């Protein structure tokens, strides 16, 4: 009995893989109702019946071709890491499309179990699936699950163990496509699969030990670039490939479609056949999704409702934040005399209060009250499926900057935090799109920067000024992307996206998701803020500031018209953007920003902080996504844009 | 326009159905469309069009797809 087992979760985007992963491992993988969140592969461990099960959550993909990095990553994981079992997670309400991917996994002949997920939702849509029949046709165990409620997961793992224990290695040297029960392609395709297989066998091509011969042969018919490369690298590979190409001439002569289309069409026919045998639609209801979309995607009402939703979110966050910020501030101010009545030298009192307490208090009273409602709204937009509607509505607008509607989803996530936004751009197809979208994401104010603007401009000048600053930012992001599109080489791609149905977000996973995001603030940001505040206080006494300000003053004071001290806080802000505001308050010993900044300075400060540089964590994410060279380009572009716009505002805003 | 007329997908009226006969796009684009279930012979219903040169929403294989205008204009359908 195998003690250590590796299983992979594979399936289309947006079917609940991440939810199953979280339920099984207890880790929190960010979930949401839009296609393509698992951009980096997530791993977790489950201990069950004395066995250690490593679970790998592969990215959500529709196919195992070589058109995106995610698809290649997934199939190479399956080939090289040889998981003991692949759990194919399938959306029961959308069986046919999901089966297209299942067919490809079947072609790989890996040990499999199917998790037929969201069966409750399927039933609501009036779709009933004959599980026994499905098992019989596919030849693998099928388990019905409702991942959000944890239903069926125990049985799923039991089945996985059964498959592991009964698994036998097959002989790839003795394969015959005629023995396939459900994988029935048109005769020509089957015939050529066997012809190619014979050539591969004859030349002892090693590739068939890595991927199953059926899959390899189909990939060679499809002229899959990555597999062709792999074949050519083998000894004699060039010649083998030539022989295969010559053989395929015969197939090409019989059809006027590209060969890849033939294979894909056959796979869909198989998927359609299986669906037709197992799915019975009890009644075709007009769904809520159809009704809502009549408004939400309407040519006029769609845009109006989008604006209304954005405004409601904005005011909701602002009002909630303002109220609780005030309550918490009153509470913490009561503690100040406690420190100052202590019988210790004044310098220590400053350290204690300004360095330690003020940092924590500012973080809790200013940042937390805004971050919390922000993540509530973001989770709702994400989990209901509304973000995908924004992608539909904004597709044409995005086209002007060389992107398509789907690119807006990661960019919008940037309002939460730029790090997942930048990493999330990997759902896009080309390097060019990934570059433009990551660049856009860095200019989108994350929750920290939103807080700075709401907590200063919003509170002391009025929410309409804060809104104007955000509107200015939208313009800046758009113009910056326009230029990035002009200089980036290559051609833009068009949108293809599945539109998910609306869902009522499940309470527990959503709360967990909100908590996970806030936890990041509490555990990662708070310590940095405290250490940063303390370091600042020490530096203040060491007298090093005058050298720093000497260098920064020409830009900060002369060009931007800001107090000299801003230069210092901007440097610390690279660690965490919240630090800029918190340190400014700490250094001036007040929580009323009006005592340090005039309204004009407040706007310039807000805009500069919003744009001036990606924080350390975002720079790291950029490096992982687009490489160092482009990352530096983005960093310098941000600095340039911030200084340029800040300076212009300082000159034209003479009336405030 | 009667039955069997071949038109461009974007010429299809909202809530009308067609059957894909041809995809006239580059190799990669064709493959992407194929993999999302749009192959010759597939029945599609045009649910709605975005404003101006906005994307189209299709109902295909019991699910909904959104396709950009440029790509959609490379798909030809037979009215059914």
TrEMBL record, chain B:
InterPro entries: Fe-transptr_FeoA-like, FeoA-like, FeoA_core_dom, Transcriptional_repressor_C. SMART domains: FeoA. Residues 7-79 form the Ferrous iron transporter FeoA-like domain. One of its GO terms (molecular function) is transition metal ion binding. It comes from the Bacteria. Keywords: Iron. This is Fe2+ transport system protein A. It comes from Thermoanaerobacter thermohydrosulfuricus WC1. The lineage of its organism: Bacteria, Bacillati, Bacillota, Clostridia, Thermoanaerobacterales.
């Amino acid at each position: 009995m195998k003690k250590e087992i590796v299983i992979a979760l594979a399936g289309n985007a947006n079917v609940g893989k991440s939810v199953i992963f979280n339920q099984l491992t207890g880790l929190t993988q960010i979930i949401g109702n839009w296609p393509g969140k698992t951009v980096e592969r997530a791993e977790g461990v489950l201990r069950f019946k004395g066995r250690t099960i490593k679970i790998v959550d592969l990215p959500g993909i529709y196919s195992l071709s070589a058109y995106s990095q995610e698809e290649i990553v997934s199939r190479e994981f399956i080939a090289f890491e040889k998981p003991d079992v692949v759990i194919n997670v399938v959306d029961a309400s959308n069986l046919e499309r999901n089966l297209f991917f299942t067919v490809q996994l079947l072609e790989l002949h890996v040990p499999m179990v199917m998790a037929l997920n969201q069966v409750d939702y399927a039933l609501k849509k009036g779709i009933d699936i004959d599980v026994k029949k499905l098992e019989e046709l596919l030849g693998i165990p099928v388990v019905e699950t409702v991942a959000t409620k944890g239903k069926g997961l125990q049985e799923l793992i039991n089945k996985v163990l059964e498959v592991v224990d009964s698994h036998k290695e097959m002989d790839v040297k003795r394969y015959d496509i005629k023995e396939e029960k459900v994988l029935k392609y048109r005769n020509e395709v089957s015939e050529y699969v066997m012809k190619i297989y014979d050539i591969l066998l004859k030349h002892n091509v090693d590739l068939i030990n890595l991927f199953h011969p059926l899959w390899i042969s189909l990939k060679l018919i499809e002229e899959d670039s990555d597999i062709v490369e792999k074949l050519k690298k083998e000894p004699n590979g060039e010649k083998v490939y030539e022989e295969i190409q010559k053989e395929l001439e015969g197939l090409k002569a019989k059809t006027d479609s590209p060969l890849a289309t033939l294979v894909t069409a056959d796979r869909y026919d198989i998927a359609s056949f299986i669906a037709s045998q197992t799915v019975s639609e009890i009644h075709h209801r007009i769904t809520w999704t159809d009704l809502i979309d009549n408004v939400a995607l309407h040519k006029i009402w769609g845009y109006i409702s989008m604006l209304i939703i954005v405004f409601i979110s904005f005011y909701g966050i602002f009002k909630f934040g303002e109220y609780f910020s005030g309550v918490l501030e009153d509470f913490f101010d009561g503690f100040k005399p406690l420190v100052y009545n202590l019988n210790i030298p004044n310098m220590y009192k400053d350290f204690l209060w300004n360095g330690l307490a003020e940092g924590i208090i500012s973080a809790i009273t200013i940042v937390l009250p805004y971050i919390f409602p922000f993540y509530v709204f973001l989770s709702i937009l994400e989990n209901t499926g509304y973000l995908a509607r924004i992608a539909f509505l904004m597709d044409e607008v995005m086209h002007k900057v060389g992107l398509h509607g789907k690119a807006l989803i990661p960019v919008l996530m940037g309002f939460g935090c730029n790090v997942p936004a930048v990493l999330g751009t990997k759902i896009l197809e080309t390097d060019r799109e990934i570059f433009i979208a990551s660049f856009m994401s860095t200019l989108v104010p994350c929750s920290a920067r939103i807080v700075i603007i709401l907590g200063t401009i919003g509170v002391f000048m009025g929410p309409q000024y804060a809104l104007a600053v955000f509107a200015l930012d939208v313009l800046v992001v758009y113009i910056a992307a326009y230029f990035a599109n002009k200089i980036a080489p290559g051609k833009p791609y068009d949108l293809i996206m599945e539109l998910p149905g609306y869902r009522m977000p499940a309470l527990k996973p959503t709360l967990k998701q909100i908590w996970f995001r806030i936890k990041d603030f509490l555990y990662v940001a708070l310590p940095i803020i405290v250490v940063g505040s303390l370091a600042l206080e020490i530096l203040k006494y060491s007298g090093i500031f005058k050298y720093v300000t000497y260098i920064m003053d020409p830009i900060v004071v002369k060009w931007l018209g800001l107090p000299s001290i801003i230069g210092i806080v901007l440097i610390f802000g690279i660690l965490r953007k919240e630090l800029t505001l918190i340190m400014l308050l700490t250094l001036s010993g007040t929580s009323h920003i009006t005592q340090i900044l005039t309204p004009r300075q407040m706007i310039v400060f807000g805009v500069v902080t919003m744009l001036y540089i990606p924080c350390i964590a975002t720079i790291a994410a950029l490096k992982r996504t687009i490489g160092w060279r482009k990352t530096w380009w983005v960093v310098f572009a941000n600095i340039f844009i911030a200084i340029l716009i800040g300076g212009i505002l300082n000159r034209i805003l003479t009336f405030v | 326009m009667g039955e069997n007329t071949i038109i461009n997908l974007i010429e299809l009226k909202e809530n009308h159905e067609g059957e894909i006969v041809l995809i006239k796009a580059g190799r990669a684009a064709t493959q992407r469309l194929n993999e999302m279930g749009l192959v010759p012979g597939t029945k599609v219903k045009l649910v709605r069009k975005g404003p101006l040169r906005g994307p189209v929403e299709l109902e295909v294989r019991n699910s909904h797809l959104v396709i950009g205008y440029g790509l959609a204009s490379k798909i030809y359908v037979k009215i059914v």
